[in-house]
Amino acid sequence: SMQCLPGLVLALSSLLGALALLQLSLYLRVPSRYGKHEERLCRPRGRLPARCAWFLQELPSFLVPALLLALRSPPRLEPLGCRLLCCLFCWHYFYRTFIYPFFTRGRPFPLQLLFFGMLFCIYNGFLQGYYLIYCAEYPNDWCTDIRFTSGLLLFLLGMGINIHSDLLLRQLRKPGEVTYKIPQGGLFTYVSGANYFGEIVEWFGFAIATWSLPAFAFAFFTLCCIGPRAYHHHRYYLKTFTDYPKSRKALIPFVF
After folding, report:
1. Is residue 182 a contact partner of residue 240, using CB atoms and an 8 Å limit?
2. Phi-psi region of 18 (alpha: psi -120 to 50; beta: other; left: phi over 0)
3. Using an 8 Å Cβ cutoff, are 202 and 154 in contact?
4. Residue pair 175/166 in contact by the 8 Å Cβ criterion
5. Angle formed by the axes of helices 6-27 and 111-130, nearest 10°
6. What digits encode the pLDDT tens for the residues 147-205?
7. 243 contact partners, CB below 8 Å, separation of at least 6
8. Any idea of the CA torsion for 153, 17, 54, 196, to the nearest 10 degrees?
9. Where are the chain's structural domains?
10. Which of 84, 203, 223, 232 is in the most buried spot, having the most CB atoms within 10 Å?
């Protein structure tokens, strides 16, 4: 049966940090070419409908930890704090896999980006699940530790912001519409990337609650991956809409 290998956890976490820096270097100046940033002249070939693409991309992050848990004999996930942390991760990806895709109204998604997205979700789903199920050791009172409670509050706050912002974005479009409009309401009053801000807060909350290298590496990756995208969204809105509120920041209220 599978055992905890601390060296494997360290290597995979370090690689995730390196991938984060690679993402930052690739997309800080030029956005990844999908959605509102895709080339206007490129033909929509090699694409899947957005709903199907999001479902396939996010599914491994839910299935891989579930499979790791099923393979563990006997099931571990003790104490309660460890069970809750694993549930938080799977809860996010249950929403992302089985709820979010069926409401999204995005444009068709490039197969190449879908492929790399699935690879990442397999990789990260394995790393986070493997650590929590086979390696993590927490005291019995971890649920009352300030790191767990503060991280949990941040996670729930971030997830709430993320889900609410996604709802506001969906309401901008009628069924069948693919045009882009100015987001209004919620945290969009202050930042252009409210949905991205929520997800970053969520995963840093998870990292604090978990207090582990894999979780902090994932939070750092999230920041480096969708932080630049929020910045490019902000520039797009300013360039496209003459009436775009000049007081809005790109990602973090009152800072950027």
Report:
1. no
2. alpha
3. yes
4. no
5. 150
6. 999 999 999 999 999 999 999 988 887 766 667 788 889 999 999 999 999 999 999 99
7. 182
8. 50
9. 5-36+44-238
10. 203
